[in-house]
Design a protein that fits this description.
By secondary structure, this protein is an alpha+beta fold. It has helices at about 15-25, 55-70, 100-120, 140, 145-150, 195-205, 240-255, 270-280, 295-300, and strands spanning about 5, 10, 35-40, 45-55, 90-95, 125, 175-180, 185-190, 215-220, 225-235, 260-265. Strands 1, 2, 3, 4, 5, 6 and 7 form a seven-stranded mixed beta sheet that branches. Strands 9-10-8-11 form a four-stranded antiparallel beta sheet.
């Protein structure tokens, strides 16, 4: 029975199209791996990639991607609004079908070791692979970002888990992890161009400032419409569903006499993240996932 894993690697380039394509070419047409989606963000200067595949070819595709990112991205020159510590900033993997979380944890360990062995880029582990409880929090690892971390990476508290107690001089470090569920990137668009309002609402929603513990959010310009949005990374869409954060943003926006005019998902999402919102908004009772026709098709495959 074939096993499948989802990976959502992020590399620190979202502006140079030629560079982005060269990095993505490392995973295209790899047998046993599918490039599902990628989302370059010029403001973040970052590209989020979604891959699915069998463990062995997926591992090689991720390592090839990391190698090209490390070759083409110089962190001494890279600037963007998204926190980051390295060229191949993150490599998170998640069980998708016929594979356990424990097997994904083991594969993440292999990936981390080989990132250092092949490219001499140090590695931090987070998620289920975290060596210390505080490193389960991605914000802790990224605190200070590349510029700040390189000054203190020699300390016991902040040194990498694999490699010397220092960052790579141009590629920084890579964060590797396994987890149960991938994050969902969710933007709620406000009917205003006032960025400060979006930032105030983002502070209310995000965990570290008193909001949802599994949500990180920022206020951003939504350039396509001359509006602003509350941009959220949702790390547990089961216990903190999309509809809950959406309703809080709506409620807070009403304080300023502002409406929510829409929302968008960045990249692909698990169907479960949409089903729980469907149940909430139309009041579905006793809904069974077997009522979704496509679920039966997946079983045939």
């Amino acid at each position: 029975m074939a096993q499948y894993i989802q990976a959502v690697p992020n590399f620190s380039e979202g502006r140079r199209k030629e560079t982005i394509e060269k990095i993505l070419n490392e995973v295209r047409n790899v047998k046993g791996v599918k490039l599902v989606d990628y989302h370059p963000d010029p403001d973040f200067n970052r590209t989020v990639v979604t891959l699915i595949g069998e463990p062995k070819p997926l591992k090689e595709a991720l390592l090839n991607m990391a190698g090209k990112s490390i070759e083409l991205i110089n962190m001494e020159e890279q600037k963007g609004s998204h926190p980051r510590i390295g060229a191949q900033d993150t490599i998170p993997i998640f069980p998708l079908k016929n594979i356990t979380l424990e097997e994904c944890v083991e594969l993440a360990e292999e990936i981390g070791r080989e990132v250092y062995e092949r490219f001499k880029v140090p590695v931090y582990f987070t998620g289920e692979n975290a060596r210390k409880i505080e490193r389960k929090n991605l914000d802790f690892i990224r605190k200070g970002q590349y510029e700040g971390l390189k000054e203190i990476a020699h300390t016991d508290e902040r040194k990498p888990d694999i490699g010397p107690a220092a960052l790579h001089p141009t590629a920084g470090a890579t964060i590797v992890s396994a987890g149960t569920n991938p994050l969902v990137a969710f933007n709620v668009i406000l009917d205003t161009s006032n960025l400060e309002i979006a930032r105030k609402i983002a502070r209310i929603v995000r965990g570290p400032s008193g909001g949802f513990t599994t949500v990180r959010s920022v206020g951003l310009k939504f350039e396509e419409r001359d509006k602003v949005c509350v941009s959220m990374n949702m790390f547990d869409y089961v216990n903190t569903p999309l509809y809950r954060t959406y309703e809080v943003v709506k409620l807070e926006a009403s304080r300023y006499g502002i409406n929510v005019i829409g929302s968008e998902l960045v990249g692909v999402v698990p169907v479960e993240s949409l089903i729980n919102s469907l149940e909430f908004y139309i009041g579905l009772e006793n809904f069974n996932r077997n009522q979704i026709l496509e679920n039966h098709l997946l079983d045939l495959i």
